[in-house]
């Protein structure tokens, strides 16, 4: 049953992409997201972290049904939206993309980009109302009416991302997938944009899924954080709990990777440095997918997939050897 404390929830979400195999006519699947379940509470930010290719973007896009899920269920505000016509939900559920260069049509003015979103959902009563809404949302993201007549290439990276945020906000959503929205920006302006997301959330009561490679970005903005590895969620906890009392060896390795100059990061726990790369999601390791890079792995890890367990209130992890690791 759908738990109504969540605005957005996914149950056993699976996204397999068919791809061509190495041999002629051979078909394979990329198990990009494999049986992932979590909920996002109203008004909260759930951070989602993990190395490149672990399935973060696919999770975000599938829960918006920009990709149709292979299996599993998606709920929004208590409604099962796995199979419904998404148009009314597109207004409530928006996305801000990682790359503000690729995600804005270079032939359209900023006003048209934002206006298009308003038009799709018939949100303007008149031409003047439409124009007023465009100017209002531009000012919400720190731009002004003059910017409406310009093209994306006339803006800096940070300004362009503000346009992407304005486009999402223009339809008055309740939920936004923020897919690495600051990764492509200069480090000097990343904090500004993250702060803007926080301010918008406070003012508008927004709920976010905030995706990042890097724990150091999401730990400030997130209430809770989920960690993905090779299509699986391996740990999920309150942000502070995850930063200071992580239990999964993969999470510990991510925390080890945060530069020591960061004074807030706990150094009491053992440092885990991973060898090698993430294996292919076409042919993931048996049992625990992390085992090929885990210093604690044994036969059990190869034979059996670890169960997703609540290790303390609201803190979940999937690992056979939590006792050994901690
Ligand atoms: N449309 C697609 N068709 C086939 N495979 C895909 C598709 N989209 C993603 N993949 C594969 O699915 C896996 C997960 O990709 P995804 O983009 O979700 O990872 P990510 O965690 O967002 O990575 P990054 O941090 O680099 O953005 C990868 O192996 C990727 O190559
Ligand atoms: Mg991604």
TrEMBL record:
An annotated Gene Ontology molecular function: ATP hydrolysis activity
Pfam families xref list: ABC_tran, oligo_HPY
ABC transporter domain span: 8-255
Domain of life of the source: Bacteria
CDD domains: ABC_NikE_OppD_transporters
NCBIfam families named among the record's database cross-references: oligo_HPY
Source organism: Lacrimispora xylanisolvens
Family of this protein: Belongs to the ABC transporter superfamily.
Coiled coil ranges: none
Keyword Nucleotide-binding: yes
Alphabetic keyword roster: ATP-binding, Nucleotide-binding, Transport
Protein name: Oligopeptide transport system ATP-binding protein
InterPro entries: AAA+_ATPase, ABC_transp_ATP-bind, ABC_transporter-like_ATP-bd, ABC_transporter-like_CS, Oligopep_ABC_C, P-loop_NTPase
GO BP term, example: peptide transport
SMART domains: AAA
Record's keyword annotation contains Nucleotide-binding: yes
């Amino acid at each position: 049953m759908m738990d109504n404390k969540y605005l957005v929830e996914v149950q056993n979400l699976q996204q397999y992409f068919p791809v061509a195999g190495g041999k002629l006519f051979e078909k394979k699947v990329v198990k990009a997201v494999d049986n992932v379940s979590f909920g996002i509470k109203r008004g909260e930010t759930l951070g989602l972290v993990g190395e490149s290719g672990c399935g973060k973007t696919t999770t975000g896009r599938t829960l918006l049904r920009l990709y149709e899920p292979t299996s599993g269920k998606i709920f929004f505000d208590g409604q099962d939206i796995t199979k419904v016509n998404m148009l009314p939900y597109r207004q409530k559920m928006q996305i801000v993309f990682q790359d503000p260069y690729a995600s804005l049509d270079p032939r359209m003015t900023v006003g048209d980009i934002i206006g298009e979103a308003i038009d799709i959902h018939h949100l303007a009563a008149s031409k003047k109302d439409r124009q007023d809404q465009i100017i209002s949302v531009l000012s919400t993201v720190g731009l002004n009416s003059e910017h409406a007549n310009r093209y994306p290439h006339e803006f800096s990276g940070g300004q362009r991302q503000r346009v992407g945020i304005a486009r999402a906000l223009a339809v008055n959503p309740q939920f936004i997938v923020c897919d690495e929205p600051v990764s492509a920006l200069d480090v000097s302006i990343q904090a500004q944009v993250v702060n803007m997301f926080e301010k918008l959330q406070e003012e508008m009561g927004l709920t976010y899924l905030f995706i990042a490679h890097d724990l150091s970005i999401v730990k400030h903005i997130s209430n809770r954080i989920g960690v993905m590895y090779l299509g699986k969620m391996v740990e999920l906890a309150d942000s502070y709990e995850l930063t200071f009392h992580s239990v999964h060896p993969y999470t510990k390795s991510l925390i080890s990777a945060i530069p020591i100059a960061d004074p807030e990061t706990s150094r009491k726990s053992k440092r885990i440095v991973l060898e090698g790369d993430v294996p292919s999601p076409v042919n993931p390791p048996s049992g625990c997918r992390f085992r090929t890079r885990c210093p604690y792995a044994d036969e059990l890890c190869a034979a059996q997939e670890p169960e997703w367990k609540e290790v303390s209130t609201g803190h979940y992890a999937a690992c056979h050897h939590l006792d050994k690791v901690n």
